[in-house]
Amino acid sequence: MHLSNDEAQFLIHLQKRLKQIQVAIPEPSKYNEYGLTDLDSIRNFVAYMWRAEKNPSKSTYILFYEKRFLLLRLDTYGSGVHTNPDGSTIPPHTPHIHIYDENHGDHQAYLLPELFSDPQNAVQTLLDFFEYTHVVDVDKIQIVEQGSLQYEGQTGMDG
User: Fold this and answer.
1) Are 95 and 119 in contact (CB under 8 A)?
2) Is residue 44 part of a domain?
3) Domains in the chain: how many in total?
């Protein structure tokens, strides 16, 4: 079974909610999994974040539907030239995003949209990835990196 491009785009643009408000940035050479669901709790998604061991700013962020269909993959630091099925290329070490295509899977890459403000910053890129994948309440997410709170969204409280 595969998804059509229309189905994949629908799933990518569907509003989602994290199953937990506090998420952790993985340690180098590790990955973390973040459970997501649509707002009706019918469709399940999972986002992954992986960080390289020797270059912690080299990260990969992935959005799966039902843990089977890779919808998006963001690479902050491509190792070499990425050649797309249509022959176009992404230069080495250039942050880029792969978007599901029914004919090519996740092999087609594009330069990052402007929404991604600082691809070398793991915390900011994770927040931007959640925003790009239509996660609601991004401003309420608490992000922990190696045991300490690195980002706490707006809580609605003055102070």
Assistant:
1) yes
2) yes
3) 1
